[in-house]
Amino acid sequence: MGSIDVSRDDAVATVTINRPDRLNALDETTRIELADHLAALARDRDVGAIVLTGSGRAFCVGQDLAAVDELDDAHDTVDRTYNPLVRLLAGMDTPVVAAVNGAAVGAGMGLALACDVVLVGRGASMSCAFGRMALVPDSGVAWALARQVGHARAFDLARTGRRVDAEEALALGLATRVVDDAELAATAASEAAALAAGPTTSLALTKRLLRAAADLPLDAVLDREALGQGVAAQQHEHVARRTAFLEKSW
Questions:
Q1: Phi, psi of 48 (to 5 degrees)
Q2: Which domain of life is it from (predicted)?
């Protein structure tokens, strides 16, 4: 039995990191298995949205420090097995909802922040804990923090590795919404079902556009907006909604 569970409910796939005895810490086998499942779901046209969560008391506490050999060549470990996970989550057209059900630490925080919707249980927390191990942020954490909270606060979070509770995560822009712990799974499923219901093409184009916009000059973003709008406006999803709107308006 693997360390990743995948379940389906119509167009919603739920991916659960299932190593509760290790607080869902990631060893290489788990990372590769998670990447394989995410890649398969990204290719599956019947999947309209994905929920990413953890089993037990934690979302994911990052690198399994018991796998000490994986840090002998940390560059290879990160480049080969962590970076593909973040690229998959951020780059796939399928929207991904993080259901942060407990601690999201280090690379676990990176996985959550790479998702499109970040729902945080009221008792959950995030921690950029790399500094406490005399390491540097990876798994996209530096990228996300620098853009979402600014340099000074990002440096503070990275240097101290302090615990950020759910309400502070929301205030900092690291969470989309705080949800009562008992309602987290149902809320994530509902959010994912709404995303899966569409409009699929415009959501995918919007995700691509927003992911690229932070690193592009205004003129390049304007060009991408125009191109995306040209595609979206031709889709049945838009035509049907426009027709319904006009019928109600007139």
A1: -100, -20
A2: Bacteria
